[in-house]
Amino acid sequence: MAKKKELDEVYYLGYFKKLYESWEESTHKMMDVWFNSPLMERAVEKSSEFKDYVQGFMEQSLEQRNIPERNEMDKLLNTIDSLEVKIAKLEEKIENLESEPEKSSPKPKSKTKPKNKTAKSKDQKS
Predict the structure, then answer these.
(1) Helix (H, G, I), strand (E, B) or coil at 114
(2) What is the mean pLDDT of each run of 10 residues along the chain (126 residues)?
(3) Integer angstrom CA distances of residue 72 from 36, 64, 65, 68
(4) What percentage of the chain's residues is helix, strand, coil (to nearest 5)?
(5) Same domain? 18 vs 48
(6) CA-based end-to-end distance of the chain
(7) How far is it, in rounded angstroms, from Cα 41 to Cα 48?
(8) Residue 73 shares a structural domain with residue 59
(9) Rounded to whole angstroms, how far apart are CA atoms 112 and 104?
(10) Do 68 and 76 contact (CB within 8 A), yes or no?
(11) What is the structure's pLDDT at 70?
(12) What pLDDT score was predicted for residue 11?
């Protein structure tokens, strides 16, 4: 009984193997005919022409709408990145200046008013 089951499985798998081989052969023949056909050459040619047409149309549309191109966007992003670096450096310098004690800045003068010279000269004369 086990041997019969084994044979059935082999026959069953063999059937699918033959079915696959038949499909593969017929598909190969069909593809040969299709790819060697002058219609296929023309289809590829027209497909390429259509792709070029669509690309040109898209470029023209984007240009008319003043949408920046990729290289312009890249240049803008590089500029923004460099400005961010400069701002970070300036912020760091400001923090360093704020954290330093006021030793580097001159001491403020006393708030008292200097004596009037004319008043001194009057006192000395009397």
Answers:
(1) coil
(2) 69 82 93 87 91 92 83 95 97 91 59 56 52
(3) 45, 16, 15, 6
(4) 80, 0, 20
(5) yes
(6) 148
(7) 11
(8) no
(9) 24
(10) yes
(11) 87
(12) 73
